């Protein structure tokens, strides 16, 4: 049974899942941050935790293992989303990025971490 988990982890379909889930989390988070000026890090974590709940529907895995998979999958989704956003910020930045002026429309890619 353990060998099956390893085989499922290293196949092409399972390797796409974190990327798609991370891109989905990044897209939803960036839209919410741009539209409502919400704190991106926390929104991304919340969206990642929601998307990670999918693993809880797999009844072939025992509850303790599901919880471990849920936490790990959610953290991977968050990391993918955070990294995709950081790459977008870097790709579209035109020098030093400051905090936006009040009333100025926010861009889709913007830093999610707290300003220093």
The largest sheet is: none
Number of helices: 4
Give the overall pLDDT as a whole number.
Answer: 80
Q: Calculate Rg over CA atoms.
A: 17 Å
Oligomer: single chain
Q: Helix and strand string, N-terminal first?
A: HHHH
Percent range for β-strand residues: under 5%
Concise synopsis of the structure shown:
The chain has helices spanning 2-9, 12-36, 40-52, 63-92. By secondary structure, it is mostly helical.
List keywords for this structure.
116 residues; mainly alpha
Q: Would you give an account of this structure?
A:
- The model has no long low-confidence stretch (mean pLDDT 80).
- The chain contains 4 helices and no strands.
- It is mainly α.
- Helix 2 (12-36) packs antiparallel against helix 3.
Topology summary:
Elements: H1 2-9, H2 12-36, H3 40-52, H4 63-92
Helix pairs in contact: 2-3, 2-4, 3-4
């Amino acid at each position: 049974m353990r060998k099956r988990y390893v085989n499922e982890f290293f196949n092409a379909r399972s390797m796409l899942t974190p990327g798609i889930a991370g891109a989905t989390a990044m897209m939803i988070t960036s839209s919410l941050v741009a539209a409502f000026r919400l704190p991106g890090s926390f929104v991304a974590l919340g969206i990642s935790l929601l998307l990670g709940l999918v693993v809880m529907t797999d009844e072939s895995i025992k509850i303790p293992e599901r919880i471990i998979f849920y936490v790990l999958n959610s953290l991977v989704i968050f990391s993918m989303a955070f990294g995709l956003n950081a790459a977008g910020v870097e790709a579209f930045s035109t020098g030093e990025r400051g905090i936006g002026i009040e009333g100025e429309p926010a861009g889709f890619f913007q830093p999610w971490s707290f300003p220093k």
